[in-house]
UniProtKB/TrEMBL annotation:
Name the record gives this protein: DNA-binding transcriptional repressor MarR
Every HTH marR-type domain range: 43-104
One Pfam entry name: HTH_27
Naturally occurring in which organism (per UniProt): Roseibium album
UniProtKB keywords: DNA-binding
GO terms, molecular function: DNA binding; DNA-binding transcription factor activity
InterPro entries: HTH_MarR-typ (IPR000835), WH-like_DNA-bd_sf (IPR036388), WH_DNA-bd_sf (IPR036390)
Length: 159
């Protein structure tokens, strides 16, 4: 069995910390502004990106950024709120196609003001890092600091 190198493990930890911290902050900001969760945004975005043709629910699963557990319930809630419209496929009466409603598109656009700002805030330093060492340092800063491994080394010592 192959095991990850210390560097691979460091990268994995940093990416997960950055993801977790950025999502926590953006979720809090969305709640504070009275918006639904990032899962709702992601769902609305996925349906909107499908265009006029719409999308079947099973097709969304490979597009979404969040885990798909409870996708059916989340979809049902957004349909009941009038943010997503479900239609029956003409060629397969059992199949259903999802379309975003004008209300859903407007909500997604309003949420983007908060979400996009959060992405910028958390990623701006990473996007401007001039090299790998600086990129890793920024990952540590954004994700909550250095990595404590058994030998207590800091990522910056390797860079």
């Amino acid at each position: 069995m192959m095991k990850p190198s210390d560097r691979e493990t460091d990268i994995w930890i940093m990416l997960n910390r950055v993801h977790r911290q950025a999502h926590r902050n953006m979720e809090a900001e969305l709640r504070q502004k009275g918006f639904p969760s990032l899962r709702v945004y992601d769902l609305l975005w996925g349906v909107e990106m499908s265009g006029k043709e719409g999308v079947r629910a099973y097709e969304l699963t490979s597009w979404l950024l969040f885990e798909q557990s409870n996708l059916s319930r989340l979809l049902a809630r957004q349909i009941s709120k009038g943010l997503i419209r479900e239609t029956v496929m003409s060629e397969d009466r059992r199949g259903k196609v999802l379309h975003i409603t004008p209300e859903g598109a407007a909500l997604r656009k309003d949420m983007w003001e908060v979400y996009g700002s959060g992405i910028h805030q958390h990623m701006k330093d990473l996007a401007t890092a001039s090299g790998l060492a600086e990129f890793f340092k920024q990952l540590c800063d954004v994700g909550g600091g250095p990595i404590g491994l058994p030998d207590q080394r800091q990522v910056s010592k390797e860079m």
